[in-house]
Amino acid sequence: MAKNVPEVVARRLPRYYRYLGELLGQGVNRISSRTLSEKMRVTASQIRQDLNCFGGFGQQGYGYNVYDLHEAIGEILGLNNHYRMIVIGAGNVGRAVANYAGFRRRGFNIEAVFDVKPELIGSEINGIPVLDAANLGEYCRTHLPHIAAVAVPGAAAPDIVEVLEGSGILGIWNFSHSDFECSVPVETVHMSDSLMTLSYRITNPKK
Amino acid sequence: MAKNVPEVVARRLPRYYRYLGELLGQGVNRISSRTLSEKMRVTASQIRQDLNCFGGFGQQGYGYNVYDLHEAIGEILGLNNHYRMIVIGAGNVGRAVANYAGFRRRGFNIEAVFDVKPELIGSEINGIPVLDAANLGEYCRTHLPHIAAVAVPGAAAPDIVEVLEGSGILGIWNFSHSDFECSVPVETVHMSDSLMTLSYRITNPKK
What domain range is B131 assigned to? Predict the structure, then answer.
């Protein structure tokens, strides 16, 4: 279905999905490409082009059915896959990830948290067990989680990634402030990018 | 200097800045627009176009001076402003922000954390005092912080934002999973967007 989608289009899909979900929550069933484009701050022709990459969903003179479009984008994003996820690192970031209920709602089910600290091993975060990071490889080979969120200090990340790569993980969600080469997809959360954007907007107010 | 820059270009600048900083760390002094474009995964002509928005920095046949370009983008982003920042919410996300040393290095100096929990008020996070959220408005009017990171539960965010808006804050960095209208710039960190992108990349592997 989603062949040769430019990366820049793929990167906009989560925003479309999130925004359409908000509309659904507000009881909005139908939206014009113009209104959608205003809310998303891209041009209406961009919206049509983006969605045409996947076969096109709109109807001339009607606009988009919000529910159908939300479902379709969710499917393209693979959100119906019911991923099993693990979190490596029970520090502030790892805890924030483990505590956020929204991930489960979107099909990401966190099954275990790993840490090296003896005082944390055996405890629970949000009902999720904290396991010994020494057993990470074995756990992955037996439980076959799909996604690992890596929330360890940058210096510890390469060793963790090496274990994960060899254990059948499908993708890594990286919070470690450390870039690395990897044979599976890695998405890195660069929180400071949005802080820099805020700085830009403060420094360059719209006339 | 930075007039009428399209938002999409402005949003790429933090990535340029971050990547150029990595090059500097590796001792790289000069880069061609072609190499820069490969690393950034945008076309070389896009790179030239982007940087031309700000007056252009490259030299034909030489490429870009990494240090000069990094400095120039940092200035455009307003990173020389030495912002005073506060964090509202001493939960996992607030703590993660307060503990990350990288922000200070980039000119964002966190001066106080605010929370409502009596057992946290009076403590310190990374040497930063935790103050009573009841005094947030007064603190802002006397200390004039520039940026507030809002890391409170979504339901608590609107009241906090109302206090901040009336107190001279210049921008809000929002982690609250809650969207709101505001008279000052707001940048919201949507962590789940990158998780959805990871899901997309797992579901649609490159051929």
Answer: 83-191
